[in-house]
Amino acid sequence: MTQIFVRTGIHFADADAALQHIGAEMLAKGVVHASYPQALLEREAIFPTGIDLEHHAVAIPHCEALHAKTPAIYLIRPDKPVHFQRADDDGEIPVTLIIALIVENPQAQLELLKRLFSELQNPEVMERLLTAPPAQLGELFRNTLLEPQLSAAS
């Protein structure tokens, strides 16, 4: 079962500060190996993860599965947008939601990324993720994006 961690209202000077925070937090939670924080920074430098959507922008930082101990997702709604490099282009975009993926299975990571790209294109889904009370954000993410087929069946 994927653990979901949520943090809202936190301030980051820039994307590097956000990535360093993610690395330290996930290490402290015990879901990643000691190699994870550096691997996350290195991967973001080579393959930026900022995605410009219709009304908002998200970043989906992640790194190779070998740095993960157990599947987790860290959702961060910063107090103000954080500028991340665009994944598809040069330049930066102001990100209002950071979705850090810790996946131990490369195939599962690919499937999850595809689902996120697809679902996050829906402005209603994004709006709900950005406005949900912090206490409900993890459950909303799990039911909408992570395990939609499970919640639909129940």
Sum this structure up briefly.
With 154 residues, this protein is α/β, with parallel strands linked by helices.
Strand arrangement in the largest pleated sheet = 1-4-7-3-2
Q: Uncertain segments of ≥5 residues (pLDDT<50)?
A: none
By CATH, the architecture is named 3-Layer(aba) Sandwich
Shape: globular
Tell me the structural class.
Answer: alpha/beta
- Determine Rg (CA atoms, Å): 14 Å
CATH H-tier superfamily: Mannitol-specific EII, Chain A
Termini distance?
17 Å
User: What is the number of beta strands?
Assistant: 7
Largest sheet: 5 strands, mixed
What's the tally of helices? Answer: 6
Please trace the helix and strand order, writing H or E for each element: EHHEEEEEEHHHH
Q: Estimate nothing, just give the exact number of structural domains.
A: 1
| CATH level 3 topology | Mannitol-specific EII, Chain A
| Fraction in helix | 40-55%
* Residue share in β-strands: 15-25%
Mean pLDDT: 92
- What is the CATH class? Alpha Beta
EC number: 2.7.1.200
Pfam family, one: PTS_EIIA_2
Organism: Buttiauxella selenatireducens
Keywords: Transferase
Secondary-structure map:
Layout: E1 3-10, H1 15-29, H2 36-46, E2 50-52, E3 57-59, E4 72-78, E5 82-85, E6 92-95, E7 97-102, H3 106-120, H4 123-131, H5 134-146, H6 148-153
Parallel strand pairs: 1-4, 3-7
Antiparallel strand pairs: 2-3, 4-7, 5-6
Structure notes:
The protein is an alpha/beta fold. The chain has one domain (3-153): Mannitol-specific EII, Chain A. It has 6 helices and 7 strands; from the N terminus they run βααββββββαααα. It has helices spanning 15-29, 36-46, 106-120, 123-131, 134-146, 148-153; strands at 3-10, 50-52, 57-59, 72-78, 82-85, 92-95, 97-102. The strands form 2 sheets. Strands 1-4-7-3-2 form a 5-stranded mixed beta sheet, with helices on one face. Strands 5-6 form a two-stranded antiparallel ribbon. The longest helix has 15 residues, at 15-29. The radius of gyration is 14 Å and the shape is globular. It starts with a strand and ends with a helix. The mean pLDDT is 92. It comes from Buttiauxella selenatireducens.
